[in-house]
Design a protein that fits this description.
The chain is α+β, with helices and mostly antiparallel strands. Strands 5-14-17-16-15-18 form a six-stranded antiparallel β-barrel. The N terminus is likely disordered.
């Protein structure tokens, strides 16, 4: 038996503490006390209305909805003709928390509630695999530890890494030697080229020797100067004999012999110029080619280590003498700031490139995964870059935000849903991957919709209703048919008319009175 019906009426006198209990609607004993007092006031009015209506008690309590030919519920022409009336004196409204509001039509924005799942930001997840086989020498992080970009995770001893670093070291030595040789050859080539110019201009041998004494030329100096010296001597002999022959002191045959020697020395000198010039170009070309080969070998050795994941900072200080066996160390480092989610590596373990050792995720942002049903397809066009709100049972007082970055174009044939992805800031780490959240999407806004606040809605035996104010201290129950709801309002499909005044706060007091009367009649 309902405890409200079993209480005896008491005088309608409320203390200050009783008022707070009524307003809170948390103590049934206080509500029953008020309801009993109000029941005594309305008993005579109800009995009078029952007789006037000529019906039974049930028809005076509930407004009946007629079924039309299409099966839809519609109200009678006078919706209050058969409804029970409740009286509550106006001087009791304040203590009972009664608030009235005329209902009106206006824009109605629906909210779609979806179940979402928090997931890792797949763009900020790293699965750490070694690129080489080896033995684990040290592990520098633990499970759940926060790491920074480039932080050392583990050290692996790898023969492949050691051999590759030694090859790079040797290639760099060869490169340095090739550079030195090429620099020297370039200097020699420049000096010899300057000497060739001086010889072609037929500078005196003494001036040439003075100008090029401290400039390195290798064997080219001797070869060129010897030929040039022979030529200049022969030329001097011809000039000297020519003067003597004119005076008749020397025969013409001697002069011809001297000229022949001069011409031979000139040919030798010119040949030597061409030979040295060609040889110089070839030597310089070979030196340049050797330098390029050495550079290529060093670059290949360095790239091979880059492919294995060795960073430039490690390659810049390769020295077998100082590092010893440490030259074979392969260092695993964090690619970005994050948290170690999995760790499957221990000391002295043999590792391979196909076995994952650790996984790291940046939890400062997370993905929200949700599935839209077929009736939500009209929302797809407005979802791009839209901000949605998230709610979690773990944090009932918090509202989170996420920005939609993907709304699928195809429907899953098995679930008949379309995938949606959003990214949420998670700087406080409150959203845990794997937890479920409620995703609130802004629906389509309808115009001129009749609506009432959610606080106005009451329910009894599966039927939703509101209390309509009929003037002065009279209220009647009005059964309604509702539609969609959002955070604050609910759509009214049938049962109410615009501008009717309904109880939006304190309706529970009237409902308690109504139930008390119903129990009293049984």
């Amino acid at each position: 038996m309902n405890p409200i019906a079993s209480q005896k009426p008491t005088p309608a006198k409320l203390t200050k503490s009783s008022r707070h209990l009524v307003l809170g609607a948390v103590a049934l004993a206080s509500i029953a006390s008020i309801a009993g007092a109000f029941a005594m006031r309305s008993y005579d009015a109800r009995r009078h209305e029952t007789a006037a209506a000529g019906g039974d008690a049930g028809s005076t309590r509930l407004m009946k909805l007629e079924e039309n030919s299409s099966g839809a519920a519609t109200t009678t022409e006078n919706p209050d003709a058969s409804s029970g009336a409740l009286k509550l004196p106006q001087d009791r409204w304040a203590v009972s928390g009664i608030e009235l509001q005329p209902i009106r039509k206006g824009p109605f924005a629906t909210t779609v509630h979806l179940t979402g799942k928090v997931s890792l930001n797949q763009d900020r997840v790293a699965h750490i695999f070694p690129m080489v086989e080896g033995t684990v020498e040290s592990v520098s992080v633990g499970l759940g530890e926060t790491v920074k970009a480039e932080q050392l995770l583990a050290t692996i001893h790898s023969r492949v890494i050691g051999e590759s670093k030694l090859k790079l070291f040797q290639a760099r030595l060869q490169l340095e030697m090739a550079k030195t040789k090429h620099e020297l050859q370039t200097e020699v080539a420049q000096n010899v080229d300057d000497l060739l110019k001086a010889l072609r201009e037929k500078m005196p041998i003494e001036e040439i020797e003075a100008a090029f004494r401290r400039r390195p030329m290798g064997e080219y100096r001797e070869r060129l100067l010897a030929a040039y010296s022979n030529y200049t001597k022969s030329q001097a002999d011809v000039s000297r004999l020519g003067n003597i022959t004119t005076s008749g002191a020397v025969s013409g045959k001697t002069l011809l012999s001297a000229e022949a020697n001069r011409n031979a020395d000139l040919a030798t000198f010119q040949s030597r110029l061409e030979e040295v010039g060609y040889g110089l170009r070839m030597t310089t070309l070979l030196s340049s080619q050797s330098l390029k080969e050495a550079e290529t070998q060093a670059a290949v050795a360095e790239t091979s280590l880059h492919i294995l994941g060795v960073r430039d900072a490690e390659l810049s200080k390769i020295d077998p003498t100082e590092q010893g066996e440490g030259i074979s160390h392969y260092l695993l480092r964090a690619p970005f700031d994050g948290t170690v989610l999995t760790k499957d590596v221990v000391l002295s373990e043999q590792v391979r490139p196909d076995v994952m050792l650790l996984s790291i995720a940046d939890l400062s942002t997370v993905w929200i995964l949700a599935d839209l049903y077929q009736e939500h397809i009209p929302l797809l066009n407005s979802l791009a870059d839209q901000t949605v709100h998230l709610h979690s049972e773990s944090w009932p007082d918090r509202t989170f935000e996420a920005k939609v970055f993907f709304a699928g174009e195809t429907m899953d044939e098995s679930t008949r849903t379309i995938s949606m992805r959003a990214i949420a800031d998670n700087a406080e780490r409150l959203l845990k991957p794997g937890m479920f959240v409620t995703v609130d999407l802004s629906g389509i806004t309808q115009q001129n919709v009749l609506q009432v606040p959610l606080t106005a809605i009451q329910e009894h035996e599966g039927q939703k209703f509101v209390f309509v104010h009929r003037g002065e201290d009279l209220f009647v129950r009005r059964d309604i048919v509702v539609g969609s709801a959002n955070e604050s309002f609910i759509m009214i499909k049938d049962g109410l008319q615009p501008e009717e005044s309904v109880v939006i706060e304190g309706g529970f007091i009237l409902k308690s009175q109504m139930l008390a009367e119903l129990m009293g009649e049984e």
